Amino acid sequence: METLFGGEENELNILCEDCGQIHESTGNHVYDYTEAVDEELTCNVCLQPLVSPMDTSCGHTFCAICIQSVVKSLKMCPVDRKAQTLEDLRQSNLIIRRMLDKLMVVCPNKTYCNTSMARCDLESHLSNRCIGNAAKCPNQHLGCLWHGPEELLDNHVWECPHKGRPVGPKAALKDGCLSTVEVDREPGEELGMAFVGGNETPLIGIVVQEVFPEGAVYRDKRLKPGDLIVQVNDTDVKDIPHLNAREALLDPSTPIRLTVFREKAEGRNANSPGMIQVTLTKVQGVPLGIKIAAKRDEPGIFVVDVLEDSIAHRDGRLKREDRVLEINGHNVEQSLPDRAAQIFKRAGSRIDMVVSRPGGISSQDFYPSSLLNELPTEPFQLLRPALVPRPRMEKTVSIRKGLRENLGISISGGRGQRGDVPIFVASIQQDGCVGRDGQLHVGDIILSVNGTDLTDLRHTDAVKVLKASANAKSLSFRIIEADENESEGAARYAPSWLTWLALPPHIQKTKKLSLDKGRSKSLGFSIVGGKDSTHGPQPIFVKTLVPNGVAAKSGKLKCGDQVIEVNGHSLRNATHSAAVSVLKQVNQTAELVIISWPGTVV
Fold it and tell me: Which keywords accompany this UniProt record (predicted)?
């Protein structure tokens, strides 16, 4: 039995494991009966069906707790007022107890379970079979009384108003739902992972691309490539620019709290419920477009239709059969549609809803369709259009060098390093000729030095070229200028994923890989983008990897990779639906041509 403080001051309430109801710790169990109970089986003190019945010496029957309390204080029977002591009380006969045991009750967790059973079977049902009692909020010690299906625990913890510890230190992430984890790290230590995405790209969301060995995330052993990060501490990152997300993830606080969504693994049951939050912004002259109703056999409010050309239809996240749990902070789990309609009418320009979906959710359900791959049918959008990375300028820089003067730069990148990225300026010493001249900057990509091409060289070979130029009186660098937003004022320059996306096409290197489906039904990854994207024409990007899917197991494909070709079919100018069709037509082996850039390190 678990105790919780609640109600009036000094009153101890419990969430009882025997009856599943909330009542005083010294009170009777509480049951919901399927039909009226015979008066002969009712206690004359509490006027409820008898619980643990006891008889007085004068032949009257009461609940054990009720009669013991009366006799202790009044020392008599409350019916005929004959003197009684506690020693006079006896357990009722077996026939009465059996009749009470057979009374039919309904499971108290009506939101998730509508089972009826004999009263004597309820405790076993709650302990072993009831999906509505499978998990309890870890914030019970702070007063939270939530209990429900295990699949919804992490969704609840994310929204829990009692603000307790989100999930145990090493609680595993569940796929197909939201999970909140806390990652511990040493002072000054980075998370040790790379991410891609941001609302200026077709991915929109922030997705884990890679987890590095020896880092804090690796030690934690819960985050995986393909996980969608929706919140960092108290910062919502579902729809923010890439560099803003990097700033949030570089928060030095420890532990850092991450709320993530993981796609359902292949082969897992697709019928477990999921929960999402949907925000709709009202537009003058456009109907909200949500039809709601109650069901005869289930409590609560359900979406029965989403009207075409309405705000909800253009948003694209609400579906038929969604159950409405909350509207603008009002819990409507047990309410009637009339109450929901009143809340909708009183709402201002913004409506925040929490809904559950029996068939589960995917990462696409977190974003309005105007941010994904559907073109709006009218000249308005619910959310702002994303920004496209600016192309970076290419130019030649000539620098004169003194006889004994050092270059004074260090470089990074090259083939053989992480992601096979181009050679770029990692740091500049002010006492070298490059620092004195001031034309080269940290983050500039070096294409050639004195006519020697560096674009396809290994890092060590590029270093040799620079050293060989040390004796020259002047140096000519062909460069692509750094993005000032990323390099200016940085204590230590680390290129972001956006740096590589903005490179001109002739710098972007393709590579080939093969994925074999085996017995799997799919290749195990989702895509976004296409020439019909609401951002304007975009490449096809890999958004998420399905846990235990073909792509994830292969280790060859990463979130954020651009898919250029599939089995000879070019996707460079394909619509999103055409790209999906090409991938679905793969029978066994997919020969892919991709462009793969490393994600932003945090």
Answer: Metal-binding, Zinc, Zinc-finger
Structure tokens at 57: 């010496």
Instruction: Give the chain's length.
Output: 602
Tokens representing 562 are 């651009």
Residue 146: count of CB within 10 angstroms of its CB: 19
Q: How far apart are the C-alpha atoms of 73 and 1, rounded to whole Å?
A: 27
Residue 346 confidence (pLDDT): 80
The predicted model scores a pTM of 0.59
d(CA 108, CA 415): 63
Residue with the two structure tokens 């934690």: 220
b/e burial code for range 123-135 (CB count within 10 A of at least 16 → b): eebbeeebbbbbb
What number of CA atoms fall less than 13 Å from residue 296's CA on the CB side? Answer: 0
Q: Give yes or no for a contact between 144 and 134, defined as CB atoms under 8 angstroms apart.
A: no
Q: Please compute, for residue 306, the number of CA atoms within 13 A of its CA located in the half-sphere on the CB side.
A: 15
Q: Which of 238, 262, 242 is nearest to 198 (CA)?
A: 242
Query: DSSP code of 128?
Result: H
Alpha carbons 232 and 260: distance in angstroms, whole number? 9
Q: What is the 3-state secondary structure (H, E, C) of 40-63?
A: HHECCCCCCECCCEEECCCCCEEE
Q: Report which of 571, 602, 502 is spatially closest to residue 244, judged by C-alpha positions.
A: 602
Q: Which two tokens stand for residue 338?
A: 């009339």
Residue 243 near residue 485, CB atoms below 8 Å:
yes
Q: For residues 174 and 261, what is the distance between their CA atoms, to the nearest angstrom? A: 8
pLDDT range class, residue 77, cuts 50, 70, 90:
very high
Is the Cβ–Cβ distance between 500 and 421 less than 8 Å?
A: yes
Bridge-based pairing state of the strands 474-480 and 394-400: antiparallel
Which residues have a Cβ under 8 Å from the Cβ of 220 and sit 6 or more positions away? 170, 181, 183, 184
pLDDT in tens, 111-141: 888 889 999 889 888 887 888 887 877 776 5
Cα separations in angstroms, 240 against 139, 231, 232, 234? 30, 11, 12, 14
Query: What residues have CB less than 8 Å from 337, skipping those under 6 apart?
Result: 292, 293, 294, 301
Q: Which of 202-216, 287-301, 364-378 is modeled with the greatest confidence? A: 202-216
